């Protein structure tokens, strides 16, 4: 009987847990290193498109992660006059669910525990090597058949192996919060409201809470203020007072980032999640791509026993779609936020026309309608 292969993973976020679960399901022994003293998830709600849901089903967590989630039926973008600029319909084979991010994270932790994945807290990984090694801050080297950098945008493992091409600070940022749900709130429709360079995204989440995202440019001092400057946002969205008045969380404003790698792997080391392809959340695909890439990584390692060969094949197959989504989420952000207020009407015309073009709709939904490798 062959000996089980072993993986060491840096980072116990969504990406690290997803890779760990995918490998453990295929008989790997897995250890995940988390720099924090406890496992916890920041954030509010999370968009799970069909590709992400299929990936989570294959990882054995979809049902638990989405047990409280609202099933979204439509997605609408509206301009400053309330005019619908974009209308996206979801169906049985093209789903979107919107759970709290904490529910998803807890489901992943529970599944990892069930599969005997060893998660080590307060383990600070500072570097890696393509021969299959991670090094912690005390100088200890953790050897494995595969090492994975899932340690976020500023990945020290990725950087130590010179796999970083660019880390870009973008011109927009986001404050994401949960607000109490009220009777009469839309239960199945996401609405993105536009006003100048600001956007307010309303998302049904559970029977108890809704998810709200406030987006503005980095030079919008009032827009990025925390706690949220409700009066300033009310000036931009006077018809949304019923939403804004419910904001009582402090929250945090995060600047959008984009990570581009020279390669996703070197030797027996791979990079996943934000460490590989961080992007602004305009298309809501960052986590979904992470899940499908984690799942396919394990599938390719099943196909090729030689780890470097498997990793090269995985990147050739999976990276083009991820790069495509990065480009289109950047484009969406520029269209939404980069127009001066005096040209808002022209922006509305451009978006309304573009989203009616079938080719544009296909590009925007390319990832959502992709069937991940290894998914049912």
TrEMBL record:
Query: Which residue numbers delimit the FAD-binding domain?
Result: 9-301
Which PANTHER family does its entry note? Answer: MONOOXYGENASE, PUTATIVE (AFU_ORTHOLOGUE AFUA_6G14510)-RELATED
Q: Which InterPro entries match?
A: FAD-bd, FAD-dep_Monooxygenase_BioMet, FAD/NAD-bd_sf
Known Pfam families for this protein?
FAD_binding_3
Which GO-annotated molecular functions does the record name? Answer: monooxygenase activity
Q: What is this protein called?
A: FAD-dependent monooxygenase
Keywords, sorted A to Z: Monooxygenase, Oxidoreductase
- Key word Kinase present in the record? no
Classify the source by domain of life.
Bacteria
Q: Which Gene3D superfamilies match?
A: D-Amino Acid Oxidase, subunit A, domain 2 (3.30.9.10), FAD/NAD(P)-binding domain (3.50.50.60)
């Amino acid at each position: 009987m062959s000996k089980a292969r072993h993986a060491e993973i840096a980072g116990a976020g969504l990406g690290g847990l997803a890779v760990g679960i995918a490998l453990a399901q295929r008989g790997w022994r897995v250890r995940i290193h988390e720099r924090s003293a406890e496992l916890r998830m920041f954030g509010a709600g999370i968009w799970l498109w069909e590709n992400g849901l299929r990936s989570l089903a294959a990882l054995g967590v979809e049902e638990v992660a989405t047990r409280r989630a609202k099933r979204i039926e439509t997605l609408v973008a509206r301009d400053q006059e309330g005019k619908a600029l974009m209308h996206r319909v979801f169906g049985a084979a093209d789903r979107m669910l919107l759970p709290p991010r904490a529910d998803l994270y807890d489901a992943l932790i529970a599944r990892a525990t069930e599969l005997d994945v060893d998660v080590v807290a307060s383990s600070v990984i500072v570097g890696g090597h393509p021969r299959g090694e991670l090094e912690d801050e005390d100088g200890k080297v953790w050897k494995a058949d595969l090492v994975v950098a899932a340690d976020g945008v500023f990945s020290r493992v990725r950087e130590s192996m010179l796999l970083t091409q660019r880390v870009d600070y973008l011109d927009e940022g986001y404050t994401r919060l949960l607000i109490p749900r009220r009777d009469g709130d839309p239960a199945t429709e996401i609405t993105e409201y536009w006003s100048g360079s600001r956007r307010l995204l309303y998302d049904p989440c559970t029977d108890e809470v809704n998810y709200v995202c406030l987006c503005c440019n980095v030079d919008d001092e009032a827009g990025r203020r925390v706690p949220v400057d409700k009066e300033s946002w009310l000036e931009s969205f006077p018809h949304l007072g019923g939403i804004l008045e419910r904001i009582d969380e402090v929250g945090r404003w995060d600047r959008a980032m984009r990570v581009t790698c020279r390669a996703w792997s070197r030797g027996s080391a791979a990079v996943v999640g934000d460490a590989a392809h961080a992007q602004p959340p305009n298309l809501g695909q960052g986590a979904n791509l992470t899940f499908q890439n984690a799942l396919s990584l394990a599938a390719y390692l099943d196909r090729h026993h030689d780890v470097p060969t498997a990793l090269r094949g995985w990147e050739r197959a999976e990276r083009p779609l991820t790069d495509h989504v990065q480009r289109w989420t950047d484009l969406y952000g520029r269209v939404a936020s980069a127009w001066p207020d005096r040209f808002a009407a022209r922006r509305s015309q451009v978006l309304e026309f573009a989203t009616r073009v079938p080719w544009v709709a296909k590009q925007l939904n390319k990832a959502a309608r992709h069937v991940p490798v290894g998914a049912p």
